Each structure stands twice: as C-alpha cells, then as structure tokens.
Amino acid sequence: MTLSFPRKVILYLVEVGIRVLWVIDKITNFSLRDLLSFLKVFFASVTSLIFVLFLVYSYRFDYLKMVAEGLFLSNDSVSNSAFISFPIVVRKIPEPQISAKSALAVDRKTNKVLFEKEPSLKVLPASTVKLMTAAVSLDVYKLDEEVEVSRYCSSIEGTKAMLPEGKVFKVSDLISVMLVGSAGDAACTLATFKISEKDFVGLMNKKAKEIGMELTKFSNPVGLENINGGHYSTAWDLYKLAKYATSISFIKDVVGKNNYIISSVDNSFSTTLMNTNKLLWEVPGTIGVKTGTTENAGEVLVYEYKDGIEDVIIVVMGSKDRFGDTKLILNWINNSYSWN
C-alpha cells in the first residue's frame, strides 16, 4: 500500500519519538511520574506539529475548501459543481449525418461538448449577428428610449419589418422585432440613431473579444455580406454569443416568443412578425435562439433546448436544412446521453 506524504511524516515522527524515549530510558533512570510528564509534553508537541502540517497540506491542496463545499452547498449547487461528471454517455450510437458545414452542441451548465463537426471553421454567420446587435443595443440605450427610423434604414436590404421612414419606436420594440422576425431595418435603426454605424460595429467587435469570440469579425449590425470588408464567425463563437446573450433576461424572454406585434409610438403603424425559428412550434422544450440565412451563408441556426436539468445549445452553420440538422443532433444527444 502506498502512503501519502503527510502520513509518512506522521509515522516518521512517531518512530523518532519512540527511539528518543528508548535512548533516554537507557541513559537515565526516569521515575514513572517523570516519564508520564515527559510523554505528555512530547505528544503535545507532536500533536501541534501534525496540526500545523495538516493546515499547510490543506491550504496547498484546497482540502478545507472542498470539505466546506460538500457540507454547506445546496443540492442544486452541488449538482452543478466540478465534482459532477454529467451528462454521461449511456449509449454508443452512430453520429447523425448532417448537411451543415460546421456544427456544435454543448451542455450549457458544464460547457461539455456533446457533438461537433468542424466547430472552429470560419463561416458566414448571417442574421445570427443580431444577437450581438441586441446585446450592444442594451449597452447603448435604455429600453424605454424612443428612436426614429431613417431613410437609409427603411430601405436596407434583407428581411425587414417594413418600418416607415420617420416613424418613432421604442428601443424595446425594435430589439424584439429584430430578434423574433429578424428585422434588418430595426437592427439598422438601433445601430445608427444614437451613434454612427461604424462606432456601433466597433462596440460589437469589442464585446465579442470580451466574451471570448476570438475567431469572429462583425462588419455590420444586420448580418449582410460584402459590407465593410465582410464578416465571419464559428460555431464555437456563436455558442459563446448565445450563452452570453441569453444570460440577459430581456433577450432570453424575447427569443422564445412565437410572434411579436410592433407599433409606432403614435400608433399610426403596427405590424406582426412571426418568429423565424419554427422549432418553437415543433419541438417542446425549445426556448430560442436566432436564425440566419443568406445565399452565401446558407442556413444558420443558434438553438437552445431545455427540458428539466438538460440544457443544450446547438449551433449549425452553412446548412442546407438547419431545422432538420438541429433535430437530428438533438435526438442523437437525447438517445446518447443521460443527465442523472
């Protein structure tokens, strides 16, 4: 049996003590009372030394911290701690064959990779960039601020809510219609009303670095291609963006809405946009997050599924069938892994 270092030290000290007593007994003729007094002092000294060694050992290897966590943390906290290895593989089945160029599925609570296919490949992100547009908008504006739609934004390319030039809307409504209906005119308005579009995109790229999106470049707030040198991202970076964006309660609530009605401040304009993520209707447990599609990017989807203790974020990029690919990955995960 192999002894740990602290135990070896203790045994060594005991052995030394016994030898010292033996030598003293040979040299001197202690009375029983003297011997008991000596033993009392000796063992008190040894005990103190052992206690000091224990404190040093505990500090060095965080033993006391681990004991405290085990005693005082709640069951929920313990289940989320580093001591828990879930989710675990319970069945070995072939991975799904998907059309996406790049894909990633991660357990949100532990950051454990459940499925991957070229997750660091730089791919066009399309309208999933609007998650970052929303996050930066919340830094620039208050939700109840009012902004006016410019001619430039009312005529922008891509999916729109057909917001009329000159109409005034609340920031909360613009963010909502941008995330639910992927409205590019709403994204443009948020990115150009208070500061310049260039400065807004600068804030997007700054925040990307702050949250660890090292392989991402944003060139515009809408997700359009071939603007300001183009843009790119990866499945890994979009996972980080999704995790960050949905940690903001307002965004998390909005991305789960099936539709959104937006009205101008004067109520002279109103329109309803349906959520572009059809899995909200098809897969129970779906809670968001954002779609994206362009001719060059193909189909992109950042998706989150939560059912009980399972909380998974799936990203597919460059797909020919983003919803089909995502369902294949999700079904494979649910058949392969267990969370309890």
Account of the protein in words:
This protein is α+β, with helices and mostly antiparallel strands. It folds into two domains: 5-72; 88-338, Beta-lactamase, CATH 3.40.710. Helices cover 45% and strands 18% of the residues. It is built from 13 helices and eleven strands. The protein has helices at 5-27, 32-61, 63-72, 75-79, 130-140, 151-154, 171-181, 184-192, 197-210, 235-245, 249-254, 279-282, 322-336; strands at residues 88-89, 102-107, 112-117, 146-148, 168-170, 259-263, 270-274, 286-294, 298-307, 310-319, 337-338. The chain has a five-stranded antiparallel β-sheet with strand order 3-2-10-9-8, sandwiched between helices. It has a two-stranded antiparallel ribbon with strand order 1-11. Strands 4-5 form a two-stranded antiparallel ribbon. Strand 6 and strand 7 form a beta hairpin. Helix 5 packs across helix 9 (197-210). It starts with a helix and ends with a strand. The model is unreliable at 65-83 (pLDDT under 50).
CATH topology of the largest domain: Beta-lactamase
Mean pLDDT, nearest integer? 87
What ranges have pLDDT less than 50 throughout 5 or more consecutive residues? 65-83
H/E series: HHHHEEEHEHEHHHHHEEHEEEHE
Task: Determine the number of helices (DSSP H or I, runs of at least 4 residues).
Answer: 13
* Cα radius of gyration in angstroms: 31 Å
CATH superfamily of the largest domain: DD-peptidase/beta-lactamase superfamily
Q: How many E strands? A: 11
